[in-house]
Amino acid sequence: MRILIVDDEALVRIGIRSCVDWEEYGIEVVGEAEDGVTALDQIEKLTPDVVLLDIKMPRMDGLEVLKEIKNKGIQCHVIMLSSFDDFDYVREAMKNGAIDYLHKSRMNAEGILSVLLNLSQSLEQKTTGIHVQETTDKVDIIHHLQNPNLTKKQFEEICIQNHLKFEKGYFSILSFCVKKYKQVLERYERSQKNVFHHSVFHLLSNVFSGEKGVEFFQEKENRYIIIFSNGQEISQIKILSKAHEIIALVEDAMKKFLNVEIVFGVSDIFLSYSDFSNAFDQAIKALETKFYHPNKTVIFFRDFKIQIPREKVLKDAKKYISAIKERAKNYNYDAMKEETKSLIQYIQNTESLEEEEVKKLLEGVLFLVDESPLYLKK
What share of the chain is helix, strand, coil (3-state, %, to 5)? Predict the structure, then answer.
């Protein structure tokens, strides 16, 4: 991988160049630039794979350079170097093709190297979801911790061996996904879709860099898990307040830097890690009901209704559809409409079926409508 360093501060450029033995990791620093005009010239001449690009510079700022790269069709990946007061600029940069960002005040050798190596790995992936090795290992470990047969001692040993930041005491699990996920991916070139997941991972790393007792990982393509605990806090109210704080931080960061909206599923608060599997399932189940609550951004498992078994709901739904068919045969269209309304209301009230199951049932109803006279369609 060949990189170009662009920053108007000489100390920053020197620091990045000298903080790591780049050759050891297969990375070559091909050049430097102190302003946007020089940077654009260097990019065209040196054709780097990656540009570390400062936002605020003389002559031409980072956003202008980024737009020129895009307009000229130059093939390179841009990582922005930002300060804490550059939120709006970073958001604009991400919209214009930047794939990631680094806070200069928090920048260190380990962080820079991690971003570049993860980027290199993600660009080689052919699947739609990025799974950095560290994240993949963590997913496997978390799934292992859900084994109900684990003793308390075994659970703690696994956490210690794998450096998981779990603290004894109250804990809760949050799951979240990106709204309108397919539309979000359409913003990226086909070859860069993996980069979105890497950006989310890096964003969460920044959000939780100073947090104790917080672990996060990507569990599947559009589902992320956050586990937080506080061994010193004995108040469930304060733990719940902490959950709201984490949700607000992640929502704000995802909106500011990636311009996406997300929805959360939140488990109950537990005291013993013997309930880890239960908490995990609760967070997932809460998130999966987002289909029934399109206007909610946070769904708590504690607000769940007592669910009717899925098999019974499907059986009852088929009875409704049979009744709708019967009304259609008898040309009783008003009754047919009422049966359809009752079916939809029943599905909404039970919240037991998955989104695809509901769609399939309603497609059957729509087929009956299409086969009915124009009166019914009106």
Answer: 55, 15, 30
Pairing type for strands 298-300 and 223-230 reads: unpaired
Going edge to edge, which strands form the sheet with 298-300? 214-220, 223-230, 170-178, 262-266, 298-300
- The b-or-e profile of 286-323 (16+ CB within 10 A means b, else e) is bbbbbebeeeeebbbbeeeeeeeeeeebeebbeebbeb
Residues 292-351: pLDDT tens digits?
888 899 999 987 766 688 889 999 998 998 888 888 888 787 888 898 899 989 988 888
Domains of the chain: 2-124 (3.40.50.2300), 146-303 (3.30.70.270), 310-377 (no CATH)
Strands (E), 44-132: 50-54, 77-82, 100-103
Q: What is the pTM of this model?
A: 0.60
Other beta carbons within 10 Å of 277: 15
